[in-house]
Write a structure and sequence with these properties.
355 residues, alpha/beta, Isopropylmalate Dehydrogenase, ten-stranded mixed β-sheet, 12 helices, 12 strands, 41% helix, binds 3-isopropylmalic acid, binds manganese (II) ion, metal-binding, amino-acid biosynthesis, Isopropylmalate_DH, 3-isopropylmalate dehydrogenase activity
Amino acid sequence: MKIAILPGDGIGPEVTAEALRVLDALSLPGLVLFEGDVGGIAYKRHGHPLPAETLEMARGADAVLFGAVGDPECDDLPREHRPEQAILGLRSELGLFANLRPAAGYPGLEDMSSLRPEVARGIDLLVVRELNGDVYFGDKGERSSDGGREGWDAMSYNEAEVRRIAHTGFRAAQKRRGRLTSVDKANVLETSRIWRETVIEVAAEYPDVELEHMYVDNAAMQMVRSPGQFDVILTGNLFGDILSDQASACVGSIGLLASASLGERQTEFGTFGLYEPIHGSAPDIAGQGKANPIAAILSLAMLLRHSLGRETEAGRIERAVAKVVASDVRGADLGGSATTSEIGDAVLRALSALS
Ligand code: NAD
Ligand code: IPM
Ligand code: MN
C-alpha cells in the first residue's frame, strides 16, 4: 500500500505530521510512504509548484495525503507558478472529479458553532463538489476594454461532466438519508441550466432518492438558517468550495473538515484518491502550533476507508476524534489553548483507549 505524502505550505506540514503519527500508531503491515514537495515550497526548491516528480509519485501511489498549499510570498507570481496551481493540477491530472466534504456536528461542540446550539445540533451533511470543471478550469485571461484591463474566466459544464458527479451524489444519498439537494444558479446561468436538466435525467435512475433543486443564494441562507435540512448537497466546483467553508463554521471550525477527492481509477485495495483538509495553508497561524490537526487526521481516515479498504481503522480514528472534540482538549479555533501536537497526543491516547 503506497501513500504519497504531500505536506505543502504553511500549516500543511504541521497538520500532516499529526496525521502521520496516527497512521504510525495503527502499525499497518505493508505500508510504504513517499514524501514530495508541492506548492510554494516546491516552487522555491524546483521552480514549479507541481514538479513532474511529485506528480509521478502521486500517480504511482494508491492514495495521496495532502496538507495545504499557499504562500503569501508567491501571491504575485504569474498564475502558472502560484502554489494553488499544484492542487488544481493534481485534481485534474489525476482525474479526481468527485470531492466529498462531510460536515457533521459533534455532541458537545454545539457551543462552538457560529449558529445557536439548537440550530447547530442537526447538522449532518455531505457536500459532493464537482472538482474538474466549472469556472476553475475554463479559459481565462486578461484583455483590454473601454474600462481598462479586464479579467475574464469562462464557466462551463457539459452533460458528461454533470452526469458522472450526479451519479456520485445520488449513490452517496442512497447510503445516507436518501435526500439530495442540487445547488445551482439556473435562473441566471446557462451552465446551471444544463446542470439542472442533466441532474433531473440522472435522477430517473435513483427513484429511492428524493431530489430537490435550490439556487445557491438560497442554499447559503438555508445553511445558516437550518443546516439540518440538508443530507447530500450536489454542486459545482465554485459553489461547493464556498458552501463547504460555510458548513465548517456551522460545525465549529474549518480545522475540523476533511475531504476525499476521487476519480474512477481502482487500485488493488479500493479507489485511488487524494485526501486533504478543506482548509488552506493559514499563513496567519503557521509556525505557531495553533493549527487544529483534526481535519488532516480525518482526511487520513477517509484515505484508509476509500483507498485502502481499511474501514475498521477509519472508524476507529473517527471515534477517537469524536472523543477528543467533545473533551476539553481544544485548539484556539475552538476556544481552547491546546497546541497542534497536544491535540495529536489526545487523539493517539483516545485511539489506544479504544483498542
Ligand atoms: P485558510 O483556510 O488557510 O484560512 C482561513 C482562516 O481559517 C484563517 O484565519 C486560518 O487561521 C483559519 N484556519 C484554517 N485552517 C485552520 C486549522 N487547521 N486550525 C485552526 N485555524 C485554521 O484560507 P485563506 O486564509 O483564505 O487562504 C490561505 C492560503 O491557503 C491561500 O494561499 C489560499 O489560496 C490557500 N488555500 C489552499 C487550500 C488547499 O491547499 N486545498 C485550501 C484553501 C486555501
Ligand atoms: C480548496 C481551496 C482550493 C479550491 C484553492 C486553493 C485552489 O480553496 O481546496 O477548497 O478553490 O478548490
Ligand atoms: Mn476552499
